[in-house]
Please model this.
Amino acid sequence: MAPLPRQFSPGHGLTPPTGRRYGRWQCAVRRSQCAGVLRRIPALRTTRHALRTRRRGHMPRLLLVLLCCTVMACGEGAPQASARIVLDGRFADWDAVTPIAGDALDPGTVAGLGRLWVTNDEYSLLVRFEVMPELSLQADNGLELCLDTDNDATTGRSVHGIGAELCWRFGDRRGTFVSATGEIEVEHQDVGLVTAPTVTGTDFEIGLALDAESAGEPLFPGDTVRLVLRDGASGAVVPAAPGGARYILSEAPPPPLVPIDIARYDASHVRLLSYNLNNHLTDPERRTALARILNAVDADVILLQEVQDTPTEEAVAYVLALLDRGHDTWYTAKVGGESTVILSSFPILRADSLGDSGGVLLRLGEGGGSGGSEPQDLLLLIALSLPCCDESQRRAAEADLIAGYVRDAKSGAGEFGIPQGTPIVLMGDANLVGLVQDRRTLQYGEIVDTVTHGPGALPDWDGTPLADLVPRLTHRPQAFTWHGEDFPPGRLDYVFYSDATLDIGNRFVLHTPSLPQETLEDWRLAVEDTDVVTDHLPVVADLILRANSEQ
Model:
């Protein structure tokens, strides 16, 4: 396999050529690949030579080309058709990729493994797989993915007929890499692992960096990989036959990833920023980086989670001192046990603590108080900051509390009511790392503890769930919002919104290490900024307020 052109080399952050140039490049790659097939098959080499010399009696050139293309397109482990996969925990973009092993799981399956998909882009080897029963990919499972990355069964660890250079144990969040000098334990940072979703499920997708190295050796030294997925709990293995599922890395790039500019689409859009600072707000070593990020984003409403260690007035004064432009007046509040500081260029009519999270009612227009305002003059904003990590019971209880708060605000059964059609947004650090039910409670209003919090209710005004925005990184096909040492990067920060009453303009996750230098300069950022400030990433959504007549 010829080396990737520089435009598609991992880590460069450059966009592929488009239009005719892209088409010519694809054709050149295909011709090169076809020639490579001919060189590797003796019978075809002879025929190719015969065609050169125009000897009579050999197959026509068209037939040879068709045979070559058949070998490339239909052969075992042939590169998949180009498809742009975004690692975001949603799977519709995999429809263009054909499974290379396994069978669809029967609904009655108690335990086992289903289908296995593999493809790649310019950054990562991308793998999707199905499993039963529902589980968390990050803990308490026996799943192991083994890869023979040099396509040599005599090297690496012997696993089901392959010689695996890497075996990743998802439940342990660790892996074993077999180098020339022996086995070494590796972590997710060593192999560039990204996984989705972070909640329980039966369908998962992961990415492994194509340019990853361990012990000074490349993880992917060649163009052919064999994969084995096995489940220690059920004993299931995919593929069932020894030898692994063979995949050839594709040189053909997927559809171009369009970089996201951080500018608003329109000046009238209301920009929300959510940023978990992990109690590092006033750390002097992070001050400059935080200032650059806040000024680049230039939000109208700022939600800063985990500011417990800084008094409200001090926190507000500190943030305002970092802003070199913005609004003449800022309204502020501090809500929740996790101490979310809210700075709003719009008046805050009320603020309520909801466990570690909080709810605020903002007046976006000129309608006055909540009693007589038009719906589009208001915004019910839930600042999410749910309990972290192993605190699953507290997280579930807080999700129930939030769902009940939204239900009562809509019906007027609580301490206050909002006019029908008032936009609703839930935004912030949801810490959704356990049961998928917590996400369903927030999005669908499915209250679990109905004795304490009352009956569930679909939260949008048209009797549907809230929409899940899922913004991605501006320059990478990934949607993680948190990265740390103990777990692979994942999406912990969410934006749910009432799409019956609200539209979204620009949306993105800011990750400065993946930005090209020119973009960093244009946005007045430094490559290390988001790494310096905290382990979460800034999440941005621009709200488009509909005219009252459209309600």
Observations:
- The chain has three domains: 6-74, 92-248, 270-545.
- The chain has eleven helices and 27 strands.
